[in-house]
Amino acid sequence: MLSRSVLTGATQRFPRRGTSTTEVDDTVMLVRIGTAAIKITVIAIATSLLLAAPAAAQTPDEDGPAGPVIEGADTGPEARAAEAVAGDSTAHVDGAWTGAAEWPLSAIHAVVLPDGKVMTYGTDRQGLELKAFSYDIWDPTKGLAPSSHTTLPGQTSTNLFCSAQTVLPWSGQVMITGGDQFGFPGGAQFDAVSDVNLFDPDSRTLTRLADSIARPRWYPTVTTLPSGEILVHGGREDRSPATPVLLPEVYHPTNGWRRLTSAASSAVYGGGRWWYPRSWVAPNGDVFIVTKGRQEMWSLDTDGTGALRKRGTYPGASTSNATPAVMFDEGRILITTETGSASVIDINGATPKVTATDPLRSYRGWSDATVLADGKVLVTGGASVRQNLDRAVNAVELWDPDTGRWHRGASASKARLYHSSTVLLPDATVLTAGGGPPGPVVNLNAEIYHPPYLFKKDGSGELASRPTIADHSTVRHGGSFTVDLGGSRTISKVALVRTGSSTHSFDMDQRFMELDFTQSGGRLTVSGPRNANVAPPGHYMLFVIDGNGVPSVASILRLDPANAPSSAAVQSGELTLANTDAGRWVTATFKRPFSRAPVVTIGGASHNGSEPVLARVRNVTRTSFQVRLDEWAYQDGDHMRETVSYLAAEPGRHTLGGVTVEAGAMTAADDPRTVQFSQAFAKPPVVLAQVAGTNDPTTVTTRVSDVHKGDVRVRLQEQETETRAGRLHGAETVHWIALSRGTGTLAGERLRVGRTGRAVTDDWKTIWFKADHPDAALLTVGQSINGTDPATVRYRNLKQRSAQIRVQEETSYDRETGHTTEKVGFVVIGAK
């Protein structure tokens, strides 16, 4: 095999390298798991593998009750410490395992979150799948101690058992589709539900998506498309009679669900082929599907109503529900079969090419395949006779794409059979957990495998020193980015590995790609993935690998969709608050849950009551916020009914047709503070600003001034008597939304953003909208501080094409209410 030295300024792709075996005595070493270093005595692991003839297919067509054997962690005086990795003289060839550690549930499903933590779910704390209404968040940086777990109850009444999950590329939330009816009034066990749940890593809450899938699904597959949309396909609807779901669906955060009616197919999803279909996005942008039993290959075009095209058949034994397959390189899939044979399917060309590769040592029913940081493939768990504990295969097997050969490695302490899950962690180790219902064992434990690349090559069993990523620039499709190293160590490989989402012997999104790069000292210049077909939008682990083949700890990054969803991240509404609500908090619920907590701004109030009044916001969540109308402290606090409109947007940049929106939060006080926009607008935008907390309960208004293309100034103002007495308002969280002037569309309704000249005083002034807006909602806010007295903007006579607005001062210090000319921005949202 050729090797290449690193040449500064030269673009390179490095071949994968093999390893050799060296034997030495047991030794003492330091093991670092997360941030904790632990001194341990290395213990040799016996690596044995039970070789057996391939078993006949034994696919359970239903998930039965949990078996009688409940396995926790290793116990007793001779048990290995869960935090310890047992590296012996062959660790650099075979890898090594930690001991088994307690896990709060049997991890049927596992998904790596954007922050590097791992979400698992699938059973209750006793390992029962019939009560899968809880989920666990594990922090790998805390090792395997009980304190590393946060186990929470689901609040949406969905039994998550045997659903499908993926991390949404635009929000980082976990979308969980389908599940089991059991637990609902009148629900049947093993019949499907159409629920779609979202887990928010920031709040660690599980909520129900307002839009459900069109068909209930149990055992579906989810695939992230190049557009960033989510394909959901396969699964079964009812248990008896067995009803496969033949209709694929696609989810978009703005448009909801789209049915691919032209791609409904019994050939692809009928029979037992509905069971977690094996699918991947191909380099041409279509979804490549390998069916079980029929040995057929298909392409699914997800545009419009969809289209299917048969791509041929693959030779040899059939793949099955229990045999894993994984995309280990761009357009190349390693697939294993019922007999233990393995093949590579190359889908880079017009016709798939199937090439046999080295077979596994034996058939491994219900095993898991995981792409490692260096591109090798790890197979863990399974049994040579399905669900037979006596025939469990605890030794790992490692496949090298460069040689096409398998290597038997170290053995785990626990059998991982049906309902296990395995994911690659950001520190380049591998978590394997679960294996449970319907038995013969229910694993309430997990182990971590340390691949050979983490150990010194001298046979000492010691962990090798690792390269580090200090920083990197933004990674985009088709562009280059820089990686700053923590030193100037020579790097031989840069790799992106999609964060894992594993269940039922299939990791639905994981894929590996090696990136071209050049090195100059401690900086790499790296070519990003060429397009979204080879690297669909979403979250990836970035690894750098040194000349000894040792990987860094990964930096997790996000590849954004080319057309990031926008209008779903912006909502508006109108609230009428009765006079009995004056001074009282009222909860307002958004029309649809946001992907993450938005910022909320309230426009000026209507003018039913002549006394000054202004709105205040608090407790903003993904689903709701609280609002109240405040009068100034010198007033009586009793106010007539008023109407206010709100605009809410997730932090960041959004596009609403011809209107660009940027939303964020800041801390403001009495002194003017500057907000810098992430990108300059073409001309000064309209900026809405809103106090969003109660740090200082005194009534306060927010003033906006000096609005430029790239920044704006914001300050708070208390009533004049307080200011003149030197009592300034305490710092508050202020939400702000900047909108480019022009026309756009929000949730299918016409949107117009405009600004007056320096023309609005305390007298009523008519503003015109230039187009009809029946049943319009109006938000107004001052855009200047020419008059220094505290003031707010009010409106009246809101019509299809116009409204009247004025600037209203408060009168705590004097009764004078005259106000000089101000600029006022307005946002009007009207008919479709």
Describe the overall structure.
This protein is mostly beta strands and 832 residues long. The chain folds into three domains: 28-57 and 64-454, Galactose oxidase/kelch, beta-propeller (Methylamine Dehydrogenase, Chain H, 7 Propeller); 469-559, Immunoglobulin-like (Sandwich); 567-829, no CATH class. The strands form 17 sheets. A six-stranded antiparallel sheet has the order 9-8-7-6-37-38, with no helix packed on it. Strands 4, 5, 30, 31 and 33 form a five-stranded antiparallel sheet that branches. The protein has a four-stranded antiparallel sheet with strand order 10-11-12-13, with no helix packed on it. The chain is elongated. The termini are far apart. The model is unreliable at 1-68 and 75-82 (pLDDT under 50).
